[in-house]
Amino acid sequence: MTATNTALARLRTLFPNAPNKVVNPASDEQYPAAVAVPWSQTCWTPAAGYVYLSTVEELAGTLAIIRETGAKFAIRTTGHNPNVGFSSGDETAIVLEIGQLNSRELILADGEGDQGAIARVGPGNTWRNVYGWLEGLGLSAIGGRDPEAGLGGFLTGGGMGAFPNLYGLGADGVRNFQVLLADGSLINANAEKNTDLYRALKGGGSNFGIITQFDIAVHPLIKVQYDLNLNSPEDHDAINQATVAVQHAMEEDSKIGIFTNFNNGFVAVGSLYADHSDKPPRGLELFRNLKSLVKTAVPSTRGTILRSVCTVSTLISHELYEDVYRAWVEVCKTLPSGVVLHYTIQHMGKAGVQAGKGSGGNIMGYVSVPQTWWIVACEWPKDGSDDSDAAAIQSLAEAREVLLEYKCMNFARGSQKVLASYGAENVKRMQEAAARYDPEGVF
Ligand SMILES: Cc1cc2nc3c(=O)[nH]c(=O)nc-3n(C[C@H](O)[C@H](O)[C@H](O)COP(=O)(O)OP(=O)(O)OC[C@H]3O[C@@H](n4cnc5c(N)ncnc54)[C@H](O)[C@@H]3O)c2cc1C
Known about the structure:
InterPro entries: FAD-bd_PCMH (IPR016166), FAD-bd_PCMH-like_sf (IPR036318), FAD-bd_PCMH_sub2 (IPR016169), FAD-linked_Oxidoreductase (IPR050416), Oxid_FAD_bind_N (IPR006094). Keywords: FAD, Flavoprotein, Oxidoreductase. This is 6-hydroxy-D-nicotine oxidase. The protein has about 450 residues and is of the alpha+beta class. The protein has 3 domains: about 100 residues, Uridine Diphospho-n-acetylenolpyruvylglucosamine Reductase, domain 2; about 130 residues, 2-Layer Sandwich (Uridine Diphospho-n-acetylenolpyruvylglucosamine Reductase, domain 3); about 200 residues, Vanillyl-alcohol Oxidase, Chain A, domain 3. Helices cover about 30% and strands about 25% of the residues. It contains 13 helices and 19 strands. It has an 8-stranded antiparallel β-sheet with strand order 15-12-14-13-17-18-16-19. Strands 5-6-10-8-9 form a 5-stranded antiparallel β-sheet. The protein has a 4-stranded mixed β-sheet with strand order 1-2-4-3. Helix 10 runs antiparallel to helix 12. Flavin-adenine dinucleotide (FAD) binds next to strand 3, helix 5 and strand 10.
């Protein structure tokens, strides 16, 4: 009997009165549904079993069996990470499904109203749950731009919200991680206790233990104003110029948020403002005035089903943006029909780095300058192949001397050296934390 089969047999005896908790290929309807949860079909790899955990006690019992048997496992909240094996497993592995750990509670600091209030939230929440709940309380938090993304991976991978310069990243604002360690102990990691683990979890990924609860900073409700426009790619020069100008304007006005996505036949430009204002905020009018506006719309990118991403970070440079555009046009000409390769320019400002530090900081080691975190994404039908690659941007940026070391975990391909990009000192801190909190290397 393999370690995984032994673990599954023991898990069934752990939950004798709840047969639906352990789902395996013999579970007629549940099994196909459990396999097909991840956002990208590349991760629809049938696992030996899926275990649905709804309490920390159940999770602890399950983890003990996993550890004792040495079974291969993965943790899943929403399955939004498109890297195979991150929150999925094959027939040799068990997936621990923790989406039901979705409690939400507002903790008020010394009864002083919203000042210093904290949202105590389970890792299985989606941002949609959290936003909706907080909005009812007149509050907001730094979460994903796609509300279906989950807290678990988003916050441990850094977490870029719509307004990076306002309060920094999601990880910056985590006040406490409650963590289930491999040895079964449940500990808190914060600015006073287990500070090394606290630091490591702020963007250092999920391989230290299972986070069972996050305490995150909340802010007064952000009133968002936004345009989502589709422009013609032929206007690339003006779009890139406007993007650069808005990125510079963001250093002066941290309420601005943007993304520029070069896609198959259109450029989707999202311009956001974290307030209601009658006239367009400075900088954003550049997007509104682009001559190539096709329509104001939310683009539909659901045409294909298999997806992958990768990332690189650079300084802001109109010349680089034009180099990348030209290289992308050439690559697109070589793609088989049905394959969509697209890229997005995302801003992280000096103001955002400072705001993040002020809010608590993280372990990701990116420099304090206005910069661009690129996402290169590929979507392809079943018989296609993955053509996403950030290497071209990297070498173009190198040639222009605007390449930065940092790689954003949440948009990285599994094979990219994300943790090494945080710098030697931070790598050492993460290794020390892993050795201390997970000495047997269970995670
Ligand atoms: C459509 C889309 C939009 C996105 N938008 C944004 C965005 O705006 N900003 C941004 O920063 N990122 C964004 N992302 C990236 C996203 O944040 C990452 O893919 C993230 O890993 C997803 O986390 P999850 O918990 O939802 O997914 P999962 O795939 O379930 O988990 C991701 C990883 O975290 C681990 N993990 C999850 N929970 C825990 C836990 N409690 N303890 C330990 N490990 C855990 C899993 O094992 C896995 O390795 C987006 C992704 C998609 C697909």
